[in-house]
Specification:
The protein has 169 residues and is an all-alpha fold. It has 6 helices and no strands. The model has no long low-confidence stretch (mean pLDDT 88).
Length: 169
């Protein structure tokens, strides 16, 4: 009975790890794509696009909260913001894609590295959150915390299997 319960928990943790890695991989791929696309979105282009999209709504209701929020956000988008965004998205996305591939291939040395990188992302996201209070940063940070837990559980399971395999030989 106890073995079945441990196996069930282990299977659940493994499924959570694989789902987390899949989600992290999709997020990383979207970051890389976003970084590439952001290279071509100059502040002038974004400002013109946002102005065109919000013009009718603001003509109907000049105090429309969402339209004004989007318009103000686009006005704060500068060339330095664009450069930071491109570098952040490309570097963060590329590192995460590489880690996801290594974890998916069960490279044992990549698990501690993956946990360390997730901790660094959490530190950066938390520091960034203090100025933005972004719900997305909160969600990504929580996902990273859960993924750390799953990664450690998966790493321990693989180490245990590796040790059992060495004992049998």
């Amino acid at each position: 009975m106890r073995l079945a319960k441990e196996t069930s928990r282990s299977d659940l943790l493994h499924a959570g790890f694989e789902l987390g890695i899949l989600l992290k991989g999709l997020h990383a791929a979207l970051e890389v794509l976003g970084g590439v696309l952001l290279m071509f979105v100059s502040p002038e282009l974004l400002g013109g696009l946002i102005h065109a999209l919000t013009q009718n709504e603001l003509a109907e209701d000049p105090r429309d909260y969402l339209a004004n929020l989007i318009l103000r956000a686009s006005q704060q988008y500068s060339i330095s913001t664009q450069h930071f965004g491109v570098m952040y998205l490309l570097s963060d996305g590329a590192v995460q894609v590489i880690l996801v591939v290594l974890l998916w291939k069960k490279k044992l040395w990549a698990y501690p590295l993956g946990v360390a990188m997730l901790v660094l992302f959490i530190v950066f996201q938390t520091a960034r959150w203090t100025s933005t209070h972004s719900a997305w940063l909160t969600a990504f940070t929580l996902l990273d915390l859960v993924l750390i837990w799953f990664t450690i559980a998966e790493y321990r399971k693989l180490k245990r299997r590796q040790a059992e395999g060495k004992r049998e030989n």
